User: What shape does this take?
Amino acid sequence: MPYAPHTFQNLIGHAAAYGFIFQSSDIYDGLAAVYDYGQNGAQLKKNIRDAWWKSMTQLNDNIVGIDAAIFMHPTTWKASGHVDSFSDPMIDNKDSNKRYRVDHLIEAHAEKLQAEGKADLAASILAEMEKLLAADDLNGIKTLIVDNKMVCGTSGTANWTDVRQFNLMFSTELGSVAEEASTIYLRPETAQGIFVNFLNVQKSGRLKIPFGIAQTGKAFRNEIVARQFIFRMREFEQMEMQFFVRPGTQKEWYQHWKAQRRQWHIDVMGFPEDRLKFHDHVKLAHYADAAVDIEFEFPFGFKELEGIHSRTDYDLGRHQEFSKKKQQYFDTEINQNYVPFVVETSVGLDRLVLATLSHAYAEESWTKEDGSPDSRVVLRLPANLAPIKLAVLPLTKKDGLPELARQLMDSCKTAFHCFYEEKDTIGKRYRRMDALGTPFCVTIDHQTKEDGTVTIRYRDTMTQQRMALTDVKAAVLAAITV
Ligand code: GAP
Assistant: This one.
């Protein structure tokens, strides 16, 4: 189903109004491309992280999870290649002092041409850009920008600097005495924390190849053009898994993880197949022998959600070279020592939150039986991911109904997240729960006192039925267990 118009803008407003996502440092007018998760967003994000963690470390008996520090020895980033080549080509407009990532500038120009009906020209510019970027031809890219009369959105001029590479890593000083302080970096990916711990984990866990190490955690990139809400942030969270394999078997494992990860997005995240597609990399990073993006259809088009990379023995080989410590595994099956090859799965948790919210968000309107119009905004979140699973709503604040409701809360809250609300009409309370994505609401009314039944109301269909109060917990548990 295509997205309704304005879904993206409305979703951003909804996320703030209902405690999912706020601009960071809002009272100081925000910090660009940095966001805070509110009470419902933090829970949604945690549920997604837990689902990933479970599917990696609990459901695969050869994958273990770790939690490495954000700060790492500076040599890590020399060995990994990030100091020398983790950069994007940028261009500045001399009149506005605005900096652009050249691919974003050119893509925006191509989109404009397309809207003007010049699709062929747009396609040829994009193809030329791909070619020049692949060849690292920075002069050629500037010529492409100038020849096609691309202008700055702020100044409206084509007064450009040369195209230059900008490193995306944030750096800071470790140590309090200036002379002794050394530059260290905020990690731009979590993967290196796994690579440098490869032998610690393998030996302490007596793991046999093939095996994987998973971790989730913050990563930081000084994205020059950060945009599209939480799609591209400066501080974000990754969920990565490095799968260590025997050299020569990496292509097989790459295909395995490519298929597994796509299926996970369908089975666990509830994304429909037609909102996902593969984008195979044509230009491979120097360390990779195969790479693919799993793209998701966001309200602003298909964009990268997750990367699957066959990283060869590059990272472990480089750490072996720079640390002068062997990063080898003795394979008893073939009686050989080798540096393992690695297949990586890497997904952005914030992007996954955005994909989940985008897909779940719906503005609905209909005509009631009496002919009057009605409407609601609903988050059709999978029940296992919803921040609140059950809302417990006493019909009135008197006649002992709140006490009964509290008893139900107490019996359920050790098993899943519940929410108690006694203010407002029942209709308003249902709407609020729809907007938060709560799959079940239970109303305690006078009949409850007589026969021990409650009304359970289902978010997606808005249908209601009577159920024994004592059956509520099991019904919710059954729906949220995947
Ligand atoms: N270890 C491999 C690696 O970091 P990547 O393609 O640069 O590969 C992996 O990043 C994933 O991290 C991306 O698919 C995306 O979901 C997420 N990601 C990368 N940069 C991001 C940013 N600035 N904001 C939010 N998510 C980001």
User: Anything to note?
Assistant: DSSP finds 16 helices and 23 strands in the chain. The mean pLDDT is 95.
